[in-house]
Amino acid sequence: MHASASKSPSVVAAAAQYWRDLCARSGSRAATTGLIQAIWSFVRNSTPERQRRLYGDFDFDWEHRVNTMSGGVGWRERLLGELHSLYQPTEPAAFHEMMQTLLDIAHLDISEFVFVDLGSGKGRTLMMASDYPFQRIIGVELLPALNQVAQENLARYQNDSQKCFAIESACADASSFPLPPAPLVLYMFNPFPELPLRRVLGHVVEGLDGNPRPVYVLYHNPVQEHVLAENPHFHKIAQQPQYSIFRVGS
Ligand SMILES: C[S@@+](CC[C@H](N)C(=O)[O-])C[C@H]1O[C@@H](n2cnc3c(N)ncnc32)[C@H](O)[C@@H]1O
Predict the structure, then answer these.
(1) Which has the minimum average pLDDT: 51-55, 158-162, 223-227?
(2) Which ligand 1 atom is the nearest neighbour of the CA of 187?
(3) What is the pLDDT of residue 123?
(4) Which atom of ligand 1 is nearest the CA belonging to 143?
(5) How far does the centroid of ligand 1 lie from the alpha carbon of residue 139, in Å?
(6) Which of 141, 149, 171 has the most ligand 1 atoms within 8 A of CB, as the residue to mutate?
(7) Burial of 90 by CB count in 10 Å (0-12 exposed, 13-18 middle, 19+ buried)?
(8) Which residue in 72, 76, 149, 210 is a FRET match for 50, CA 20 to 30 A apart?
(9) pTM confidence score
């Protein structure tokens, strides 16, 4: 298992990057408004009532004795989340539906593939993906505090239906994390705003240079789907209201 490698990004640096990204796209006035909205959203989501609601999603954790709920995430991670993307775990039913759709369409030999969750939070998808006989499973999470919880979860997780045991959670920025040189199933639960997503896609495509191999993207809650649709390397092979699946290649 990877040790937690990165330092937590500073809130000021994250806010400055957020402003620069929005400014490059929409101008300084829109960037300032966007930043104020993100801070306001953080304040609204900090009320005891909102915080209590985040504890509602409890079944997976109860069944497996882990901690993957969005409740209990510290204020710093929530504020950084408003600037990158808020931590929220994937529902098990949605995850297994996406996997089934991929397997039905692409007929993969899953044992040749590495599953990588780009923005893996507390690691729930890593545990769910271990129901499938992947060669390896890797989570990439920007925030050290969330990655730390993911590592504790992985150490504790037990499930009779588990088929992959080579699971790790790394603390890193997905836009520079070295992807393994194997066939890949990349998972994204709306983890990036538009410009960071463009950087991550560029990184994925670069990683295929000189080592072409099958790569699929499961994009859950595909709010920025247009970014993939505009990119000639990404080909949509399935679409549902809650997710899209892409094959990456020329
Ligand atoms: C909506 S949560 C999804 C969590 C997990 N994938 C799941 O489905 O249960 C998105 C996660 O992406 C992380 N994230 C945002 N930007 C990132 C980046 N550049 N690199 C790695 N992780 C990032 C956030 O901290 C957050 O934990």
Answers:
(1) 51-55
(2) 6
(3) 98
(4) 25
(5) 9
(6) 141
(7) buried
(8) 149
(9) 0.86
Q: Can you list the domains of the chain with their CATH numbers? A: 11-83 (no CATH), 92-248 (3.40.50.150)
Quick check: 174 pLDDT over 60?
yes
Pick from 186, 205, 197: nearest CA to 223: 197
Residue bearing tokens 């994925």? 204
**Cα–Cα dist 244/84, whole Å:** 21
Alpha-carbon span 225 to 238, nearest angstrom: 12
Cα 85 to averaged position of ligand 1 atoms, centre (Å): 6
Closest atom of ligand 1 to 221 CA is 1
Q: Could you read off the pLDDT of 75-99 as tens digits, one per residue?
A: 778 778 778 788 999 999 999 999 9
- Which one-letter amino acid corresponds to residue 207? G
